[in-house]
Design goal:
The complex is a heterodimer of chains A (300) and B (403).
Chain A: H1 2-32, H2 39-60, H3 64-91, H4 100-120, E1 126-127, H5 147-169, H6 171-181, H7 183-188, H8 193-219, E2 221-222, H9 226-241, H10 246-266, H11 272-286
Antiparallel strand pairs in A: 1-2
Helix pairs in contact in A: 1-5, 1-8, 1-9, 1-10, 2-3, 2-4, 2-8, 2-9, 3-8, 5-6, 5-8, 6-8, 9-10, 9-11, 10-11
Chain B: H1 2-17, H2 19-23, E1 24-27, E2 32-35, H3 37-66, H4 75-81, H5 83-103, H6 106-131, H7 139-157, H8 161-183, H9 188-208, H10 210-213, H11 234-260, H12 263-273, H13 275-280, H14 285-311, H15 321-334, H16 339-355, H17 363-377
Helix pairs in contact in B: 1-3, 5-11, 6-11, 6-14, 6-15, 6-16, 7-8, 7-9, 7-14, 8-14, 12-14, 15-16, 15-17
The chains are: A mainly alpha (300), B mainly alpha (403).
Chain lengths: 300, 403
Amino acid sequence: MEYFLELFLGGLTRGSIYALIALGYTMVYGIIQLINFAHGEIYMIGAFTALIFASVLSILGWPALAIFVVATAAAVLYSSAYGYTIEKIAYTPLRNAPRLSPLISAIGMSLFLQNYVLLAQTSDFLPFPQLIPDFEFMEPISHIFSSAELAIVLTTVIVMLLLTYYIKFTNMGKAMRATAQDKTMALLIGINVDRVISVTFIIGSSLAALGGVLIANHIGQVNFYIGFIAGIKAFTAAVLGGIGSIPGAVLGALILGWTESFATGYISSDYEDVFAFGLLVLILIFRPAGLLGRSETKKV
Amino acid sequence: MDYMLKSLKVAIWFMFLTFPVVVIKVNTIENVVIWRWHNMFYMGISIFFVSMVWRYFLQRKEMSGKKEKTDEKTFTQSIMENPVMFKSVSGGILAVLCVLPFITDSYQINILTVALMYIVLGLGLNIVVGLAGLLDLGFVAFYAVGAYTYALLNHHFGLSFWIVLPIGGSLAAIFGILLGFPVLRLRGDYLAIVTLGFGEIIRLVLENWNDFSMGPSGIANIDRPTFFGMDLTLNQSTIYIYFLMILFTIFTIFFVNRLQNSRIGRAWLALREDETACQAMGVGKTRTKLMAFALGAAWAGLMGVVFAAKTTFINPASFTFLESAIILSVVVLGGMGSIPGVILGALIMILLPEYLRAFSEYRMLVFGGAMVVMMVFRPQGLVSNFRRKYSFHSADTDGRFGR
């Protein structure tokens, strides 16, 4: 039973991280129908930025909590700046191009960013300092659920509530939903679509950065390649839940997290990624619109 | 002046953006930080100029977009359409290629063989991406299927290269159909991610299923191809494989060229442009797409067999997503759907990094950047594909519909 609980909580943590990244995919897809392949790289850059700032500050002798706050803030700031810039360089000029073009541009961007970090930093795994302290009240269950994991789950829940509020009730959120429904119509009623798209990229990128910092802190190491697999898995989660749907992304991420956790726990840990991709293929075959997505019929 | 100011702003923005990654380098083991301020300076200056060039080309692109499109023929197009020119040019290239092994060393021949392999792989992927418009990011999976087919059959049963070649190709095609059947109903971008996932699944299975594929350590001592039963020395077989690849390339070019103008080829083009209209015209969507998928996969499988025979050692590390990305960029840079484009793309992508060894670590950085730049400024690639056009001539001049 305890093993089951451990796997369950592990899956919950995994799922929360996937959810943070998947939200960026699903929001961008909802608005411009583009799979932003570079999204995983933004998550990686977030983790790297946090690592760099944390190392500099720890050499300067700052206390751990202050380092954590500053490093996270820097990661979020820089990742959203990257997200914004990538959108302006690689996607804005292609807004009216055939669908294959922005997709290829996104893959190119992803390769570019990976190698940019590889060349400017290193190809080795860098150890990431443990920034979140061990809470005392977590002591009795710390062997199955650590403080870092608690932080991940809590952050995800809070972010999710804030995001739901933002999308549902603010003017920008309304503009986003309008743009997602019909871009031309949104333009006609006076919504600045370019700005809405930029904001979407910024929000998605900052969520990915948050995920990057938290997972790097939890796993304890960072590498230029971590964005690739995390990106595909988060995309899987987004598709699982129905791409374009925000609650769907969270649901999909949790299901994916649990699937991976239980499959590696009870079957075999070698095939962790195979389970994830297998799940993706199965979902696309039997329910292409995802669990919470609407199936679209095309009018001619 | 306004130009300069804007570029200056962009340069400052990028200096800010690249600051943590480019300037600071941390050594987390010894806890020292290296500050590389000079990088920031270089970054600022280069971005300033890049931004000016970028803006200029973007403006030029907008200007040309407004102009009426002319039917001017490009240089390659005029060569391709003139039979005498075409024959002499291709004959000349062929003659040079055939003489090369006798005047250079085997190192050069090896590089050329690799380049030829990428031409064939690129042309295979070109069927899927360029003609049928299906973005396949797991192309390398079929390559792996071919390579492992030969390696395993050779290892366990001692089957020779020539027997396995068709087996590898057809097995890859079967895999293509197996994967394609369920997923081809999906929209284009889903297909991209599923093929990517499939490519990773194949690699992970090869890596972890030790009893079947011998895991990460791979399979060594694969037989080289024999020449009518004769065993060849290393040098001879290098040249032999080189000539095989030349024949292969010619065959592929011929095949793909014929395919392009065949019934199925035109069905692919139509499907790429508008699925609904195409279905309304009575072209079976799934069948046509499956055909493209299977044919592309078969080509990758054949090349996989050649790859295994050439290197005599394979392991899963040769079949990562990076390989798919390289083949894809061959197709994209060269020009989707264009045969001379793909050939040029493969030559640039494979030969340039070989001869510019000093910059080889920047290879993927440049390729990634080039893919973005290509899509923004020249989506049709280096050599654009020209559509065969049929125009109407009145009866007194020609009396028929002609080109």
